[in-house]
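ok new one. same drill as before - structure tokens go in, u give me an amino acid for every spot. 422 of them this time. try not to just spam alanines like last time pls lmao
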């Protein structure tokens, strides 16, 4: 796929790529250092870490309500505002002196993070036609991983050699977030890569029976994600005795490989379709999670961590591409928000239940539960059929487009015939 950088879509791609790189840098750098900050500076206890995780997921759980309240604001302005709020939250993290007065900054970053998680895909889908959606989203994701890679390398050196403390680092993350806001604010109004004078219409809240497969994909993905998010690094630290530098190096390797492969995976989704590609991805989840649970050596665990880390964003990409094919444009953004909310619906349940089970069994059991979620999505993907599963509004839109195209062809043929007679 070639991009005309002089076109509105080309300029929009550059803006979104810069924004995504800033977002990847700031959010993942903060995730890299926040655990140490909570332990070393705020002296968090074990339960407080659990409460912190629960509060951090609030933004995802209520995202659909936030988007309903802000549905009149264009996606680019909404994204810029979310980045500014996220940046302010990061910058104010070091003001906290304990759990209670940390809560406002955690909520600010949560609202910003989860809003951008959805809007970046909506903006990316607007850059091109649906047959190239996976390719574009894959390339955008690669820029996010590039920002993440720079963040991990920078954090490694800053803290390995004690060049900076937590406070100036949090301020840097806030400034990078605000830079991303300035990058995206002039993003053009686009539909299928074509510029529009006004922002495309968005519905407040969308929950339709026709999108049930999309909802199931996100709900089951959420359970699987929370298992690995909660216990992935836990295994490396407790079983294989990884320390911070070793964890950082593993994350750097995962991010570098992801950055190199994301564009190819995006093209694969476009070429193979969502049904086949999502089936392959979920089968790989089963292999990665099962292999991770059974790994007897640290290098095997790192290998399966790498496999999981590289493919994990593409469940959401594949689901977003599928949604675009069955929904009209005005439903896409709100439906993506519903998807993020469903992804996080399991955030307060699955880690707690799995953690409780962990008290009585080996660490392998939660990962087997994750395998079950991935297998469930294999069966869901077998039922995907974007052509037959379009909602009524999308069918009407497609039929109108076909009728308009046929009318245009007839008019052009008549004009050519008239010209020939002359």
């Amino acid at each position: 796929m070639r991009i005309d950088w002089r076109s509105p879509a080309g300029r929009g791609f550059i803006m979104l790529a810069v924004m995504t790189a800033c977002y990847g840098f700031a959010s993942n750098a903060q995730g890299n250092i926040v655990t140490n900050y909570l332990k070393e500076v705020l002296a968090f206890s074990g339960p407080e870490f659990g409460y912190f995780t629960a509060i951090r997921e609030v933004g995802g759980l209520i995202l659909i309500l936030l988007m309903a309240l802000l549905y009149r604001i264009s996606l680019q302005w909404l994204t810029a505002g979310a980045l500014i709020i996220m940046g302010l939250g990061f910058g104010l993290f070091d003001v906290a002196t304990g759990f209670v007065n940390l809560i406002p900054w955690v909520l600010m970053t949560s609202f910003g993070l989860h809003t951008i998680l959805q809007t970046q895909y909506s903006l990316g889908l607007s850059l091109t036609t649906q047959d190239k959606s996976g390719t574009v989203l894959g390339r955008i994701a690669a820029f996010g991983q590039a920002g993440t890679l720079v963040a991990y390398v920078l954090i490694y050196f800053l803290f390995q050699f004690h060049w900076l403390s937590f406070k100036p680092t949090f301020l840097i993350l806030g400034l990078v977030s605000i830079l991303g806001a300035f990058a995206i604010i002039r993003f053009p109004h686009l539909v299928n890569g074509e510029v529009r004078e006004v922002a495309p219409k968005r519905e407040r809240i969308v929950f339709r029976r026709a999108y049930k497969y999309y909802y199931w994909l996100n709900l089951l993905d959420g359970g699987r994600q929370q298992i690995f998010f909660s216990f992935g690094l836990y295994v490396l630290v407790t079983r294989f005795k990884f320390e911070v530098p070793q964890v950082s190096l593993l994350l750097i390797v995962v991010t570098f490989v992801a950055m190199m492969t994301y564009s190819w995976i995006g093209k694969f989704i476009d070429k193979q379709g969502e049904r086949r590609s999502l089936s392959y991805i979920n089968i790989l989840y089963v292999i990665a999670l099962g292999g991770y649970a059974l790994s007897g050596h640290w290098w095997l665990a790192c290998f399966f961590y790498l496999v999981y880390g590289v493919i994990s964003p593409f469940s959401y990409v594949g689901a977003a591409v599928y949604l675009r094919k069955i929904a009209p444009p005005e439903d896409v953004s709100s439906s993506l928000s519903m998807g993020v909310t469903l992804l996080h619906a399991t955030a307060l349940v699955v880690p707690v239940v799995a953690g409780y089970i962990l008290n009585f069994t080996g660490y392998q059991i939660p990962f087997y539960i994750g395998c079950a979620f991935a297998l469930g999505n294999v069966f869901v993907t077998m039922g995907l059929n974007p052509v037959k599963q379009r909602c009524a509004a999308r069918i009407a839109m497609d039929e109108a487009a076909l009728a308009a195209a046929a009318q245009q062809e007839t008019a052009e043929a008549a004009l050519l015939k008239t010209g020939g007679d002359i």
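Strands lie at 190-191, 194-195. and btw DSSP finds 16 helices and two strands in the chain.
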